[in-house]
Design a protein that fits this description.
The chain has 297 residues and is an alpha+beta fold. Among the domains are: 1-54; 205-297, no CATH class. Helices cover 27% and strands 33% of the residues. The protein contains 9 helices and 12 strands. Strands 1, 2, 3, 4, 5, 6, 9, 10, 11 and 12 form a 10-stranded mixed β-sheet that branches. The protein has a two-stranded antiparallel ribbon with strand order 7-8. A hairpin with a 2-residue loop joins strand 3 and strand 4 (122-130).
Length: 297
Amino acid sequence: MRPLFTRERVAASAGRFLEVLLSDERRKTGWMRAEAAGDPGPWRQQAIRGRGHWDAAALRDIVREYVPEPLADPDAVLVVDETGFLKQGKASVGVARQYTGSAGKITNCQIGVFAASVSRPGHAFIDRALYLPQAWAKNAKRRTAAHVPRAIGFATKPTLARRMIERASAAEVPVAWGAADTVYGVGEIEMALRRAGKGCVLGVASDQMFNSWGRTPPISGTAAEIAATLKASAWHRLSAGAGTKGPRLHDWAYLALADLEANADGADRSGLWTRGLLIRRELADGKMAFFTTWCLP
């Protein structure tokens, strides 16, 4: 990332800033970061964050270009999700009363949408975007005070995620799959992944409608209604990966709904791909989660 900075000492300060963030320091206030970095005070690191002139989008691109090599895997997944940053004040860009899973409720916070490359060797963030609520996007005075660029307008979280998928596709990030929860599960996210020629597993609500084509017997109804009709033999107990207490076991059911031509969505590949419904059931309480899928047969 050295080319991002005009002066060697500024680049060195940026490097120390990152090293301290990745250190074992439990609390990372400005003074604690400065002490760990060997600086007399937090001013150098504050200058990088607040007064320095460097291109954050260029740094994002550097990270995106670097990540694929150490995380190379033919089944790598592009995961899109959001998180909230709790804030007490009103001046931070995008802060508003909104729901965040970080707190499990509506509270004063910022929301960031993130994309990560995930594979067997590890995972790393490759893109990010701050969600700007409409109350911010339409308030010229507030935007000016917080230095929000004019080019940035209101965009829904799925739109922010779609742009990340398109940037990853344009940069030829080597992923085979896309994954996201119910906020992003249908519509533009699914179509963006299909146009990019990627498989996907995307969360959907229980009332999402599904219909089969050319299947016997036909399948039609909401995800919850379809799940209620499944026989015991349709379920398979599989692990979703290793957890702190051993394999994370769930009951799973999969229904293939239709075989469709892949390049009908603009993907640079041909042949039939399958759209399906994947259902996960908790062992303890029977609670279900539903996913729309797009993959090779």
